Amino acid sequence: MTKKTLNTYRAGPDEDGRFGIYGGRFVAETLMPLILELEKSYETARNDPEFAAQMGYYFSQYVGRPSPLYFAERLTRHLGGARVYFKREDLNHTGAHKINNCIGQILLAKRMGKTRIIAETGAGQHGVATATVCALFDLPCVVYMGAKDIERQAPNVFRMQMLGAEVRPVTAGSKSLKDALNEALRDWVANVDDTFYIIGTVAGPHPFPAMVRDFQSVIGEETREQILKAEDKLPDTLVACIGGGSNAMGLFFPFLDDKDVEIIAVEAAGKGIETGEHAASLSAGSAGILHGNRTYLLQNDDGQITEAHSISAGLDYPGIGPEHSWLHDIGRAQYVSITDNEAIEAFQLCTRLEGIIPALESSHAIAHVMKIAASYPSDHVIVMNMSGRGDKDLNTVATATGMTFGVE
Amino acid sequence: MMETRIAKRFARLAEEGRGGLVTFSTAGDPDYETSLDLLMGIGKAGADLIELGMPFSDPMADGPAVQMASGRSLLGGHTMTRTLDMVRAFRTKDDETPIVLMGYYNPIYVYGVDRFLADAKQAGVDGLIVVDLPPEEESELCIPALEAGINFIFLTAPTTDDVRLPRVMEKASGFVYYASITGITGTASASEADISSAYKRLKSHTDLPIVVGFGINTPEQVAAVASIADAAVVGSALVNVIAANLDQGGKAQAGLVDKALSFVSELAKGVRSSTKGAA
Q1: Chosen CATH of B5-273 out of 3.30.70.1280, 3.40.50.720, 3.40.50.880, 3.20.20.70
Q2: For an engineered disulfide with B183, which of A190, A272, A361, B52 has Cβ 3.0 to 4.6 Å away?
Q3: Does B62 participate in catalysis according to the annotation?
């Protein structure tokens, strides 16, 4: 065996689907042949110019890419320090970065001759994106969603149903994203022949973490080009929120080997890490195996997964993508956390200052930018991923801030 | 190497000319004492081999019955240590009936692989079935288990084709578990014809006994499957007997263990009424 001496952070995963010790293929035998077939099909597709051309077509004509890199001038002035840019994934069709991955996976599902699509969703953004591509490509779609999330993200449930998807409520466990993933895996194992599982984040068994990262990397690739044009240099700092970590991976990956680019990912601290009610797997979890991969998890001493909490349904997950666990351990990226209250404050500030209503997920990233911007000089450039828009969160924010709808 | 309890038990079944009954119940369901009472009686009731479930918060290959059993067990404060305690208690009374622990990898990983294997061996565990450890992850637990003298039992499924089977059989030991449907536990049942052809296909790749599970619920089904394969597993149906004998607060009602054991006796009559190879 030759020792790997490549001076790069972008070589992973290895042939066993590992990023360091993280990742892997921890699935039931019933799924294993399918996972191997998927890996092979993806390898062929990613080296096929035809596949890239198809992706490019839908990205530009359907999703509306490239998404703008917007200089948030008023926020910059308000914070007084670094120049803050938003990568506007909220302007994509369906309102979040999730569609990038769904376009890639549905094209792959078509190539593989699959005739039925399933997905899990937390905030509903991935579910909406999946339901959307299923409408476009005329495939039946079942979305698993925690009963608790169905309640707090009602607008997205209606959107999925309008698009023709069947939304199946999951009442097991904590009734949120983790349980929706379990249920989607159970469906998949029972329908291996015709069904393609579009996983929404950089987690799950290999090749999902690498595949979803690759489909999302368009975010970072565009950012690179756009910031060079705008500032004539690479960004000094990248900031993104993480639940499973797909918008963060998409922004970070093309910059991993640019050693001078500081990379910060923001976990959900919920009511505060010290309260135990949070979703900060890296800040407060430990290594374990769930949903097909080894990664950092929130769990007790006996290896039982514990419930996550975040006001943002999209971050309410007790795990994280395995590549993030690896980047955390080797120190290439920093992982910080933001509480529910800080995220709400950021949501309000961004809405009022920039006229942009951010998703509660993205509001975590904004809140961290608010914390650090002033400590940097005025030539320091921060790019923050505005991963989604916040229309879906209006009810949650109204409730949290005591606002009532309607004009008195 | 000393002949294992699993090998001895299958040799005896072969002598008797019948297939075996394998029961599955979750350790700690619905509470430690009840679950231990059930375990202590289950061999006498006619189980030839015992699968004891290690509860997990996220049993992604299991249907509602086993999911809820895991939930009840964990709610009662059950832990891996207590699962091993149960095996240890069982071994003071029965040194012949093989016990296989079944579950998911994370609780073992967090307990610590080396510590787990040492404690399991000492407690009297004969084999492990870990749903989310396919051959591709054999370095995690399969190889260390074999080195510790514990069988690692691989799952095969209808999707495990002839190209893949040799890979699965490479490190297989004890027996081979055939999940007879593509799906989760406690849902659909495979036809006898499908089980029969799968059995023949698996046998052409291994000399190990083939144990068939998933969707086997009644004495008649057990008898039918045991006449084809080397043993049949009943899991969800037994777990459902437990679930049916709980009060509204989820506590065991009087007579739960007797009812569960008499169900096992019915199943055992099933396997004893049929002759291997008769079908």
Answers
A1: 3.20.20.70
A2: A190
A3: yes
